[in-house]
## 1
Amino acid sequence: MNSDTRLLELEDLRKWFEIRRGFLSSRVNYVKAVDGVTFSLEEGKAVSLVGESGSGKTTLGKTILRLYEPNGGRILFQGKDITHTKVKDLKWYRRMASLVQQDPFGAFASHFTVFRALEEPLLIHNTVKSREERAERVFKALEEVRLTPVEDFAYKYPHMLSGGQLQRVAIARAIILEPRLIVADEPVSMLDASVRIEILTLLRRLQERLRLGVIYITHDLATTRFFSESALIMYAGHVMEKASTREVLRNPLHPYTKALLIATPDPNPQNRSRFKEVPPGEPPALVDPPKNCRFSPRCPRAFDKCFKEEPPEFEAAPGHWVKCWLYERS
Amino acid sequence: MGRLKMSSSKRVGGLKGVLHEVLSYKSAVIGVAILLFLIVLSVYTMVTIPLPEAIQAWRSSEAWSRNPRNAQPEWVEIFYGKKLPRTIIVPLKDADATKVLLEDGRLAASWTVYFNYEYDDFPSEIVMFFNSSYSEKPAVEFYWIRPDGEEVFLKKHVLRRPDDRLYLSNDLSLELRLEGLFENKVGGKPSFMVTVEKGLFAEYSLDPRVLKGRYGIRFETTLEKNDVLNAEVVIYGSVYGLAGTDHLRRPLLIGLLWGTPIAMSFGLTSAILTTVLSLIIGTISGWYGGKIDLVIQRIVEINAVLPFLPILIMLTTFYRIDLLIILLSVVVLSIFSLGIKGTRILVMQIKSYPYIEAAQAYGASNMRLILFYVIPKILPPVVPGMISSVPGFVFLEAGLSYLGLGDPFLPTWGKIINDAQTNGAFYKGMYYWVLEPAFMLILTSIAFALIGMALEKIVNPKLKEL
């Protein structure tokens, strides 16, 4: 991997949330939502962050955007350390990295027109001075996301648009500052099945054409193949497996990944009565979790070591990392 | 689709659109009309009677000496069905006197002045104001000429000072003489008490009836050569102007007129300041949380148990204060209202909305988020409340003035009611004294209440169904 093309590097990134019990109590517990994530993303590449609810994937996304300040580890963006940069000194980073949220209906202030909503980032960063130029940028962004004729959409209020249209506006807002990185946090999970693929195609095309780095957060393994070059499987704040998307889907190694794949709906009717072996139980509570493999209570293949020690990441195949004792090279 | 169109055109209209929508409610039209009337009245007052002049006049008793005391407004005639007396001022000018040179070098001077009296009721008071210069105090004799030509000797009076005043109504010996004269003429005791006014203006009959016609007053005196004697005989009526007068002969109209801008500015300023500052404090509390929130919330809770009025009374008792200080005290005591809790919760809710997070992701500052993203969201329900809170502050100011704790210089509605109360207005049947300022207070509160209610319906359409 050439270091010049590295867009984003995470080293052992941790985000723990404090919970205080009682008014004066000094005892502090931590919810370890993201607990030691390491990966890097190249310019113009997309990575999928897959996991179930509570796995910490959204927290990771927000930490990458520095909406949260990490408790440990490092975030390097284009080689610059932004782990603990003060919010007021992060303005340049806000231009370089943007967010597409899950809920398109909540993503816009109801008192702003589409035009104003798209103009806001330009106003804040003051990149475009004149009103005419701003309007040009807004219309161009709307064209990019295929909301045409742009005049029909620019002066509408969010409540007048459908979920799919709003998500397009959200994508337009995410690209309007010409960023290098987009964190797309379950961008299609709240949309109608009929428009999901359109939005994903749009996002993928934009990503390829503008050479954007995209972190695609999803719980839906099925869409990752279509969307990303590599995939990260998260469970309870840990990355369990990371490899190219193709590799993860064809040759899953971690028991959790396997379970996820099994749980994916199978369109073949002949398999309708086949029993799907899904691990019982739920993800663990993340308040001060024990130091072992976090999947061990549910893992069908767990053995003694799994309950005692947290596994490191093993490179089971070239470029294929698994956090599981099963792949320890003896 | 039609609905979408409608709401879009409504939004685009902005302030004009809001006004248009407000005026689609009949009640609001009335409210706006009353409000406009009050505004026009305030502007008219401020232009025609400048404040320093108004205060000066309101506080001086001399300016109103030619006005009747406790006179009702003129329009009460409608209810009585008869013509009530206005004040008549009969001037006796030195230049009009017929002067005859006497042997000892002095002048014998005499005046006769006539005036018409065509009212259905007796005057309330008769006072002679002198304005003279003399070397030796002149003695003046007064004669009363009735419409039938009969001449009655009233009194001989030696001027006590150049600007002497003679209160005829209080002259007991005159009253007794007039009563005797009356009994002689009628041949019996009349059914009414013969006061000076009645003795002078009544027909000779057993019942009190006004003798209408042309009356005359004659002065006779002896003056030194260079002496000058001017006088005004003021025959006070029992009605005055649009609003009547009070116990100090002041026209209530001035107080009522000046009360309007004072009440409006006090009410509006305190309502706007209180609402806006509360909103900002509540927003800061909800937005920043942590220690700031803790401190603000404790202040609110302490403020909630502090008695508002007693503190205000204490302030106004201990310090010499004017309207501005009262206003500031009211605002300071009101901004940490419990309403802050509501704002805070709304802000905390809004803070967790995805669009705030999105805005943080594209770099919006806290200031920008509060001003453009949070406040516009919580403002709509606040505006009707603000308008509706105006009457409360107007009443508060009136209440303080009524308690004698208002600005001591300004004529306000509350102070008029206070005067009426201390002078037993209701007990003496002077209803106008209380009802006029009360009417103005109610008018103001109705205007704001109607507008506030209409705005409330626009902001919260569910109320339309009620």
Note: The two ends of chain A are 28 Å apart (CA to CA).
## 2
Amino acid sequence: MSKRIGMEIAMAAAEAVALCRPDVIAAYPITPNTHIPEHLADIVADGDLDCEYIAVESEHSALSACTGASAAGARVFTATSSQGLLYMYEIVPVVPSMRLPVIMCLGNRAISGPINIWNDHSDYMCVRDLGWISMFASNGQETIDMCIQAFKIGEHADVMLPVLVNLDGFQLTHVVEAMMMPDQEEVDKFLPPRKPFAALHPDNVVSMGTLGLPDIYNEAKKANDEALINSKKVILEIWKEWETMFGRKYEPIMSYKANDADVLMLTMGSMGETAQVAIDELRKEGFKAGLLDLKLYRPFPADELKKAVKGCKNLIVIDRAVMSGGAAAPVCAEVKSVLYDEPDRPVITNDIIGLGGRDVRVEDFIKIFKKAAKAKPERAYEIYGVRG
Amino acid sequence: MKSIVENFDLFAPKLVDKEEYYCSGHRACQGCGEALAIRLMAKALGKDTVVTNATGCMEVTATPYPTTAWKLPWVHVAFPNSAAVGAGVEAALKSLRRKGKIADRDVKVVSIGGDGGSFDIGFQAISGAMERGHNMIYIVYDNEAYMNTGIQRSGATPYGASTTTRPAGKQSVGNTTWKKNMAEIMVAHKVPYVATACHSYPFDFMDKVKKAKKVNGPAFIHCLAVCPTGWRCPSDACIKMGRLAVETGVFPLYEVENGKYKMTIEMPKKLRPIEDYLKPQGRFRHLTPDQIQIFKGMAMLEYNKVLERIKHSKSWSDMTS
């Protein structure tokens, strides 16, 4: 039976990962994800998890070791943040191209420079197009649930892809919350042992990671793209199964008071809960505000988005990263591209908020809501709250 | 002409595994020393092996999809991380074996890379993997430059070699520094078995690979691999160039067990003149007699260091007993 716990979310993520019985963990310390691999190291050190824990010398080697271990058929886990992700960047696209499940928690943190250890989504946005299934947790419970779901999704025979579980640095990693933690029996029932398609072993000789010349590269890329797009079907099935087992529902886009809303706001990660409070306040004033919370960023839930915005007049896309010199911030650019062909698309505004750990308050969202409802914006996007 | 290995025809078939684990049909250049060395390595390792390969000649020539020259389980991920991938495979095999998910028998992980992937860009990953004590072998196939990308200098390029990024010219001798001493760096990591080797001494090389396989922990082999294309010598001179590197003292073959140095190919009292090694190679063609003396000085400094170590080094196990 699941147990109600009060715990730091990073440690809860580690306990959830441990319940999945990984065979190999390789990680390198970087704030703010560090408590996840630290706590896993404790669990291994106490003999509560039978796992090879490699305390590697860099993030590049962390993901390289995970890739090697996954290629050998192991269930593997790593975690990182910000510059750590950028340091392993070279390997990030190789993992999905080899169709290897590797599960990674990304404690979202701003990228340098200036150097900053606090939260935004600029680290993730660097890797969003590299082929990993990507989810964003809004709270501790979702973090636990997504960590466990990630193994089942990534290792599924019809998927075989790496999965990134994003949780906001500090805002989630270092916050103590009340959560339901599944027990070992439940997780064992939900998550079968990994059955690799192929593994590095002399009993079944394979060559992996071979050279793709121009006559095959095109096809390899197409196959990879299809695999990621098709993974959505499995993700939805597994989320359904999760809901049946644990009673917690997951959808690519979750909504809050969105049905009759004139103005919708779209967020990712921990900001969604703050926005909900703002929406409650606005509703008291008779302002019909609602929330769309994007849980699944890759594969991008285009159909769900089209459906979710039907009937609303304004859509505010909240980004937590800058796409320097781009047409809009990253999430908004994608949203606009999805909605371009929709005949009744809403007016779309784009606010970038909470960069490098800048506080995101209820009153900020209220201001943004009211501003968006008024007029068409002068600029494609605005970095909110910049001091003059 | 006298055979370079006494009674080779008589003994070789009995000594060497007839099974090929690295097969013909790969696209390496004619006379490639590295391909030969890898073939010998694979024979010495036998079937219970997993190979991880850094990006480089040996990766692109052996595995253009959908073909492969490898009959051993083989994986390539990227350029700088062969050792880190190997560490992951080793950890996985250990974990899966302990949990009864794979067969209960020893499978050795061997990570390989060229000098660029090992002396330079992969240096950190090797240092980490060796220092952490993974049960694996790292073998660097050193052809003294980035040959796959077109003969650029690396940390393994010797003095005076003309490369495309440090070419000889009116104001340039080519490369100005001597090779990084990887074997010594690995000894400093307390790696229990470290050796230098060359494909031109096949039995010595294979013995070292077999010895490295027996170590329950990390082992490191620095194998000089002649590249006729990059060294600008005839392709049929590959074996000869390797032997000249050894006989002139430029690349002595030794091993270091628990810190104790030992020469494995006996060196003559009077070494062959270094010119014998330099003259046939186009990359050294421009060297003046003075510059040849500088080359000689650098090579002999390293050679004498090895002789000193052989005289004075003590095994770590001697010291603890």
Note: Strands of chain B lie at 49-53, 74-76, 108-114, 136-142, 168-169, 172-173, 193-198, 219-224, 254-257, 260-263.
## 3
Amino acid sequence: MRLDDLDRRLVVACQSGLPLDPRPYHAIGAQLGISAELVMARLARMQAAGVVRRIGVVPNHYALGYVANGMTVWDVADDRVDALGEAVGQLDFVSHCYRRPRRPPLWPYNLFAMVHGHSRAEVETQAAAIADLLGPALNARDILYSSHILKKTGLRIG
Amino acid sequence: MRRADPKPAPPLDEIDRRLINTMQGGFPLVERPFMAIADRLNLSERQLLTRLGRLLDERVLTRFGPLFNADRMGGVNVLAAMAVPETDYEEIALVVNAQPEVAHNYRREHALNMWFVVAAETPKRAEKAFARIEAATGLEVFRFPKEREYFVELKLKV
């Protein structure tokens, strides 16, 4: 979807969050000089186009007890990675799953799956289930745990 | 910089949990959206707004509002990583975080120990952000653009 000038102003007004006001769309509209109805209509259109993934809260994993956040990475045979990536993405503990380029020799992995657990043992059990699914197509693997959140702001446009 | 672990999470009560589980998506595009959610949680609109404000202040929630997807605006999200010398880590984190295009940045345990996402409206802007980071740090930025997305849906149950 191509954003017009109003869409862009709306993204800028909402990207750090909606106001905690009983009528948040009125507040945003007042800021932009447009009606609340137009704010809602534009957000609905952006949501339908996937520009807005969802509207809601973003929890801090750590504060919710998800202290083990593992980026599991896998070197999977090229001719099998798409079928297997779809299957890995369907596992209920996988939140994000992508194919990405390898950067040999430092980085042989082409499949990334994010998993979240209350302990590293839980993440390792989840990774073992992924390994089982990948079977003989799997060549090498690793788990990169996050130890600090350095920044988490989401998209910012100017 | 926030420590991710082992910072103790503030205790969540039952209402906090229901609020977080209910509000990760589907915030309505209506005149009084908080009222609509509060009804489902058996809270008053005022109680919901107060509680939401507290969870944001305590950093249990990192944000509240629309989550935008740069990919669908003709833009890009690119995962990237650097191998940062430990002695310079904090300083380089500041340089990377200072780029407005950097949406997330995590320390991970690996030779590639800094992993960040650049979200930009155009591929050119993303590339410029990478070039600025490389020029300012003297380090190579390994780009891991997604080639296929198999699954994205983060909903944490608490």
Note: The first strand of chain B starts at residue 2 and ends at 3.
